[in-house]
Amino acid sequence: MKKFSPFILDSFDLKNKFLLRNILLLGFILRLISVIFAKGFGMHDDHFLVIEAAQSWADGTDYNNWLPSSGATTPDGHSFLYSGIHFLIFVFFKFIHFNDPQSKMFAIRLIHALFSLITINCGFKIADKLAGKKAARLTGILLATYWFMPWLSVRNLVEVTCIPLLMWGSWIYLKAITEHQKHWHFLIAGIILGFSLSMRFQVISYVIGFGLGMLFLKQWKPFLLVTLGAIISFVAVQGIIDQVIWGYPFAEFREYIRYNLENAYNYVINPWYSYILLMLGILIPPISFFLFFGFFRTYKLQTAMFAGTLLFIIFHSYFPNKQERFILPIVPMFVTLGICGWYKFTRISKFWSRHYKIITVSFVFFWTINILVLPFISTMYSKKARVESMIYLSKYPNIKIDLLEDIYHGTPKLSPQFYLRQWMHEDYIGQDFPFDTLKKQLENRRTDQYPRFVLFFDNRDIPKRVKKVEELLPNLAYETTVQPGFIDKLMYWLNPKNVNETIVIYRNKDFFPEKIE
C-alpha cells in the first residue's frame, strides 16, 4: 500500500524536482518579475524614511532633518543602519554617474531580491533539520511563492529586510546545536541576530524569546555566546554610529523606546487578536489554520525559535499600536515552524491518514487562490501617480516650490522627490490645511517664492478647485493628468483613505510660460 502523503506536492519526485536550488531559482524568477514591474513604493516608511533620506544625504542635504548638521537637537528614533547602507549605495551611484531614479531603484530592488533568497534558503534548511526533506520542500516553495512574498521582498521596508538576517542567525544556531559544532558558531549566530535587531528594533522581542528558549533547555554556553554576539553587533552599530553623530551611544534606540511608549495610543489601535486574524487571512485559510496548529506543536521540536516567535507575536499583540507591517518580520519563521509541526503531526495522526482528501482539497484551494493573486501583486506598481508625476516634472529645472491640493483628505500625501531629482518645498491645501492658511502664508512671501506647479489629488470638481486656487495663483495652465495603477485604483475604490487617486497637474505660467515637451 502506498504510504500516506498529506501534502499535494508529495506526488513529485524528491530526487529530480524541487530541490533547494530549483526552489531558489523559482523564488528568484518571481522576485525578478517584481524587480522589473513592481515600481514605486508600498508605504510611507519604505520610501521617505529610507530612499528619500539616503539620497538627500548623498546630495548634501537632509530631507528629514535627522542630523545635527541640519539643526536637529535630538535623535529622531530611526536606526541609521539601513538608510546608511542606501546612502553608501547612492554615493557610489553618483560617483559612476548612474543618476536615473528608475534605474537606481531597479538596482535597489534587484539587491533586495537577491538578499531575500537567504530567507528561502534558511527556511528550507531549518525545516529539513526539524522535519525532513518533504517538509523542507514545501516550506521553501511557500516562502518562494506566497502571494505577498515577491512584492514585499523588493520593498525598502526594515520589517522585511531584517527577515533574512533573523532566519540566517536562527539557522546557524540550529546547525551548531544539532551537529555539535564549535562554540564560535553560536557567537556568529548572535552577531547576525544582533544585526537584524539593529535593522528593526522590535526584533528584540524575538531575540529575547530566543534566549529564554535556550535557558529553558539549559543551553548555558550557547546562550552566553549568542547573547554576547548579539551585544557585540548591536553595540558596534548603534553604539559607534550614534556616538559619532550624537556624541553618546544608543541615542536613536533610546529615542525609539521613548517615542513609542509615549505615543503608543496615537496611531492605529486594534484589538489584541488583530495580528492573529491578519496572519490567518494573508496565509490563506484553511492552510493558515494548519500552520497555527503546527506552530504550537514545535515548542519541543525547536524551543528557542518557537519561544522567539511566540514572544514576538505576544508583544505585538499586547502593544496598542498595531500596523499590519509590524508583524512581517516573524511571518517566514512562523510558516517554517508551522509546516514542520503540521507535517510531523499528520505523519502520526490516524484521523488524517483516513481523511487525507481534506488536506488535498485544502491545498488545491490554497494554490488556486495563491496563483490567482500572485501575478497581480507581484507586478503592482504602487503609488504610481505620485511617482510618475515627479518623473514628469523632473524635466523642469529649479522648481523649488509646488502646491499639493487635496480637499478630500486631511493632509495631501508627500511627493517622492527622489524621482524629481531635485529638492523643493511643498505647500498644502487640505482639510487640515485650509485655503485661508495658505493665503496668509503667501501674503508674507515674495512672488518669486510662490509655487511653480499645483498638483490636484483626485479629479473630482477640477474646474471649481482650479478656480479657487487661481485666487492665489491667477496664471495657471493645465499641464497633464497622471493616472494611478490598477491596484492603486482598486485600493482607493475599496477604501478612499488609500490616497492613490489620479493627480491633475497645473503649471504656473509666471515661472514656466511654455510647456516643456
How is this fold's topology laid out?
Blueprint: H1 20-37, H2 45-48, H3 51-58, H4 80-95, H5 101-131, H6 133-145, H7 149-153, H8 158-161, H9 163-178, H10 184-199, H11 204-216, H12 220-246, H13 251-262, H14 274-282, H15 287-296, H16 303-318, H17 331-348, H18 350-354, H19 356-378, H20 384-393, E1 401-406, E2 425-430, H21 435-443, E3 453-457, H22 462-469, E4 476-482, H23 486-494, E5 503-508
Parallel strand pairs: 1-2, 1-3
Antiparallel strand pairs: 3-5, 4-5
Distinct helical segment count: 23
Structure classification: mainly alpha
Number of domains: 2
Order of helices and strands: HHHHHHHHHHHHHHHHHHHHEEHEHEHE
| Helical content band | 55-70%
> Measured on Cα atoms, how large is the radius of gyration?
25 Å
How is the largest sheet built, in terms of strand order?
A: 2-1-3-5-4
Q: What's the end-to-end separation, in Å?
A: 73 Å
How many β-strand runs? 5
- Biggest sheet, in brief? 5 strands, mixed
Word description of this protein:
By secondary structure, this protein is mainly alpha-helical. It contains 23 helices and 5 strands.
In short:
The chain is mostly helical and 517 residues long.
